[in-house]
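Example record used in the benchmark description.
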Amino acid sequence: MVRRLIVNADDFGLTTSVSEGVIDAFRNKQVSSTTLLVNMTGTEEAVGLAEQNPGLGVGLHFNLTEGRPLTSAKSLIDENGHFWSRGQLLRKILTRAVSPADITSEFIAQLDRAEDLGITPTHIDSHQHVHMAPAVFAPMFPVLHDRVRRLRLVMPPRMSLTRLSDFTPSVSFKNGVLRRSATRIRKTFGGLTNDRFVSLHLLPRRATWTADEYRSLALSGPASSVTEMMVHPYAPGNDLTSLYRHHPNQAAINEFLTKCHLEHQILAGSPVFDPTKFQLISFDQLG
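Model output (structure tokens):
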């Protein structure tokens, strides 16, 4: 049985090298979908690349944690007008310092921006998975129901006891929270979603990053399910170094970028997904 697999490249439009890396993997037939950041300096360039590459599914990468908002969104920004980091945003949500109306307004503005640029989003996901937080999803839901009926669910698969021992307690806890949130959202949403969600980024740090590991993840669930595989095939470029030059944790960002560059090398190289085993699709082919 040929498995249906969505290989979605996040962060389209973040920078030139990120967008070019996504297109490299798409042209190599190893990526079938991407999600666009609409508030970054690379947004319009990415839209142009999408227009030159028909067949690439383009969704909205709803963003509350990178750059500046498209609305005033005062509860979502710091004193310099930038979005809070994910950790800061979640802490402010816990103390009820974030306005649900600001989230709704920003979501509508980002959807409108995508459509103004000629993109009808195939689906919605979010930068750093913030839409999986109940206090973020709830203000999004009425708009999702009316305008976009396809959504990424982030539910990290349960690992075997052998692999589970490789996870830190904090990662295991976070993955459990995401699974519980995905279960609740699936019951509420009513639209179309992926059945499974996998990514090398969700594996322990000591896990291998090879084409075989991609295939193993893609084959790990029931053959009848639709699996989404999240990837970040960033092409190397000084623009990323410049973007994150003031990041407070340079060691973590450097580790992340190293993994993303390796993903680009793998997905833009020799074919990973055998077409006799996998049918690569985008979210607009669900249903």
